[in-house]
Amino acid sequence: MTLNQWDDNILILELLDEPDFSEDTDTLLLKLRDEGETYCNVIVDLQKVSTLNSSNLGALIEINKLLKTKDKRLVICNISDPIWSTMLATGLDQVFEFIEDTTTALLLIGS
What we know:
The chain is an alpha/beta fold and about 110 residues long. The protein has helices spanning about 20-35, 55-70, 80-90, 100-110, and strands at about 1-5, 10-15, 40-50, 75, 95-100.
């Protein structure tokens, strides 16, 4: 997993396809559930992900919910056309915040 602490306010999670995807999101969920942990905004980079399954989507939804309870943002970037189609088909295009790329996401969240 590539989980980078960009600064005090932003984590960047660069995901890969299964089985790494589930392991990485589980690691992030454990971190977010830790009562002593300080919450950050999270940028999820899906550039290296070719498909999403229901477990992947469920993990992203749970991460998003946890972050919202702490007034933090989950931003998804670098998605392929097939993944965008999945988001549209499931209605998750209305749930998540999407930004074109990591650099733009850093600029918008950091400001």
